[in-house]
Amino acid sequence: MPVQNRIVKVQKRNRALVRFDERRIGKAILHAARSVGGFNQDFIPGVNDKVFATGKDEEQIAAFLADIVVVGLNANAHHLIANFPPTIEHIQDGVLHALRSYGFQNAADAYECYRWGRHWLREGALTLPTFMGNGFPQERMAVTLDWCRQHDVHTVDGLNEAVRSGKILAITSEAVAIYEKSLDEAAEKVLARRRNGDHLRLIWVSGPSASGKTTTTVKLTQRLERHGLRFLMLNLDDYFWSLVEQPTDWINDRNYETPEALDIQLLNQHLQALLAGQAVEKPVYCFKEGRRTGTKLIQLEPDQILMLDCLHGLYPPLTEGLDPSAQFRLYIETQHTLFEGDGKTQRLTKFTDVRLLRRMLRDAHHRNHSALRTLLHWHYVRAGELYSIIPLQGLADHVLNGGFPFDLPALKPFFAGPESLLPREEDFREYAGFLDAKIRYHRVKALLDSVEGFTKEQVASHAIIPGDAIIREFVGGSTIPIPHNE
């Protein structure tokens, strides 16, 4: 659609002014959509069906969304002043707002991950070989998809048949064995680094929310302790700013998902001091009071390694000034490649939705947070991980897949029947502006409705799901200590 545009110039990052070209916005949007399989991956009846009906092809849909960005830029009178045009960052913010406002979540995520990946390239934190593009590692996904096809669990229909026939038991055993083997490889990489002379003092286990970091940290630590390594565990939650320094939004929610929710400067200083052999007064944070209530003196002994289970362990400001040869970084993600239905639509289910369901369950059982509250908070989770976690996964020394074919069948009984944790449709009436939460709600509900679930008795049985499997962090019954659940 033709729109009035009075913006003539754009300010680049080096402050130079260049001519504004709306076509570049449309091209960037189209590239983001096609990188995840096209706009059709985001088709949602009742949300953006009119956009699809109006646009004859993907180019027209991208042009329409670019026009929306231009309308938003023109609405800011400040941008119409000759020497104060919109910056590149303003335009990118506008693109994300337009995509998310029309329900194009997958395209928006791809755009945002690519955007921040390019930011970390410019900062020098990433190189082209470690740049992750839209955040979907095609080579790793292809390996996972090939395994899933071999076992006929690459579609929801195939997974359901495996559950009904009982074949899921053998598939579960093999999937867990692959995870355990990858953990063995991570441990061997650590030991090899030490044998080769690296003075390794710090291990990060990082990944997005509910990816299985805690179980993985425990199991990796156990493997390395069998080889004589000793560890000092550091709880990064103690470095949260006090509640008075964490502003709330209009529903009294706080963004704990950004790395800036932590006192990064103090944490970095303490890491440097600990690796230098100095003692530090580590803060002690009380979540009931929402503030630091004291300190605890800690010191890393000469033969100890600092072990950190942390969302943002790849975030460059956290490790600034630390010797790279003294660090080992493991990254974990829930990457089970699964197509909807019988696979004919070629629409993948979302990795993040498995993590969302895991976190709903954990929050309900151990945080006294409803599933609705987790859904309303999830936009903070995604914003944080698309900025400081997923784009930086190329920095990891080892990447681990924490997603399994049995995740959805194991999660379903907690979100089905009269005791379902899922909110009801009417629960969203008070939050009409939270389109992101409503889209995720309908998507995970439809996904769960399509999945053949285990019974709660089957979930509880270690004969079906091992007691030390990652999913037990969330469904319960773990045979290893889960600190944040105690």
Produce the secondary structure layout.
Elements: E1 9-11, E2 17-19, H1 22-35, H2 49-54, H3 58-74, H4 88-101, H5 105-123, H6 138-150, H7 156-165, H8 168-195, E3 202-206, H9 213-225, E4 230-233, H10 264-275, E5 279-286, E6 291-299, E7 304-309, E8 327-333, H11 351-366, H12 371-388, E9 398-401, H13 407-411, H14 435-450, H15 456-460, H16 472-475
Parallel strand pairs: 3-7, 3-8, 4-7, 8-9
Antiparallel strand pairs: 1-2, 5-6
Helix pairs in contact: 1-3, 1-5, 3-4, 4-5, 5-12, 8-9, 11-12, 12-14
Helix and strand composition category: alpha/beta
Strand/helix succession: EEHHHHHHHHEHEHEEEEHHEHHHH
Based on DSSP secondary structure assignment, what is the total number of beta strands?
9
Shape assignment: globular
Specify the CATH homologous superfamily of the largest domain.
Answer: P-loop containing nucleotide triphosphate hydrolases
Number of domains: 2
Describe the biggest sheet? 5 strands, parallel
Amount of beta strand: 5-15%
Strand order of the largest sheet: 4-7-3-8-9
**Helical percent range?**
40-55%
The CATH topology of the largest domain is what? Answer: Rossmann fold
What does this structure look like?
The chain is α/β, with parallel strands linked by helices and 486 residues long. The chain folds into 2 domains: 9-127, no CATH class; 138-485, Rossmann fold (3-Layer(aba) Sandwich), CATH 3.40.50. The chain has 16 helices and 9 strands. The strands form 3 sheets. A 5-stranded parallel sheet has the order 4-7-3-8-9, covered by helices on one side. Strands 1-2 form a two-stranded antiparallel sheet. The longest helix has 28 residues, at 168-195. The termini are far apart.
